[in-house]
Amino acid sequence: MYARIIGTGSYLPGNPVSNNDLAARGIDTNDEWIVTRTGIRNRHLASPGTTSSELGLIAAQKALEMAGVAAADLDLIVVATSTPDFIFPSTACLIQAKLGNKGAAAFDVQAVCAGFTYALGIAEKFIASGSHRKALVIGAEVFSRILDWNDRGTCVLFGDGAGAVVLEASDRPGILATAMHADGSQSGILNVPGQICAGQIVGDPFLRMDGQSVFKFAVRVLADIAEEVCQIAGLGTAEVDWLIPHQANVRIIEATGRKLGIDRGKVIVTVDRHGNTSAASVPLALDEAVRDGRIQSGQNVLVEGVGGGFTWGAALLKF
Ligand code: UT7
Predict the structure, then answer these.
(1) Using one digit for the tens of pLDDT, what is the confidence trace for 216-227?
(2) Atom 38 of ligand 1 has which residue's CA nearest to it?
(3) Which residue out of 189, 215, 217 has the highest number of ligand 1 atoms within 8 Å of its CB and is therefore the one to mutate?
(4) Is pTM beyond 0.85 here?
(5) Quick one: which atom of ligand 1 is closest to the CA of 218?
(6) CA torsion, points 289, 293, 298, 301, in degrees to nearest 10?
(7) Ligand 1 mean position to 188 CA, how many Å?
(8) What is the pLDDT of residues 156-178, one digit of tens each?
(9) Catalytic site residues?
(10) Domains of the chain
(11) pLDDT in tens, 225-246
(12) Which atom belonging to ligand 1 lies closest to the Cα atom of 212?
């Protein structure tokens, strides 16, 4: 039994916020630095009070509409997020209620920017086992809430958004291979080390990153895991029609494509317009490329993510 993607959806809140807009807000930065080092030109920032479940709900509704699936018929809802609405209940349960579904298994996955690839791999295993038939997998984030707007080395990099896919059990090939890995010994290079204790935030509630260590780690593992899923599926990287890497930095994306020998024209890039939306970045890019017609039926699409933990994951999809 395969899990096939039969619908995609995405949502970006508000208007694009440019690099110059950030500089005009008093951040000590400039368009030239951000574009040269990251390729980012714009990002979207949710208004205060807008939550991951609100963004994820809209992306989910669009994916369900494309799939022609009623929310009531879902039997699994998995949400990848590091910026959940609450400590609990899960964002997946909140979206389930907003969709009007009752009875589906619903839970969140915390694997930061690799979250969507983890959630997709988990849902694929539920469906391949025969226990579940229709799954909604969402990546939804409001990273703007955990940014230190006085830290120019991180606050210019991230944005808010959500993406979703609907998976259905099928005897036609769908997801061909998945892989997930982590190395907790690298937790110090990208984290939000605060805690809530006795009603107070203890420690630092903002995202902290050793950018250069993350950069090197990301390029290495994104190339390794792409080769791993190709090997599991019995395909060469030359047979990948589209590569959708995590959208954090265009230099990481280009270096990964080069290492894999995948032509620049086969790599989907949205980081220039979305910034790094963490778990939402891959499904946002996937939805864009499905809706604009680049991804066609029968093609092989390799999606991959890397993020805090450190975590990394990938899936090879047959459309
Ligand atoms: O989802 C995974 C998460 N993250 C990533 O994948 C990010 C991985 N890392 C990166 O993309 C890059 O390391 C960054 C884009 C974060 C930084 O690029 P870099 O080439 O490693 O720059 P740097 O941190 O070494 O900083 C170089 C200079 C410093 O100035 P000095 O010390 O050389 O005078 C920084 O203070 O650039 C300065 N700088 C800035 N200048 C203008 C740092 N941030 C900014 C800024 N605007 N926003």
Answers:
(1) 999 999 999 999
(2) 153
(3) 215
(4) yes
(5) 6
(6) -10
(7) 17
(8) 999 999 999 999 999 999 999 99
(9) 113, 246, 276
(10) 2-171 (3.40.47.10), 176-318 (3.40.47.10)
(11) 999 999 999 999 999 999 999 9
(12) 13
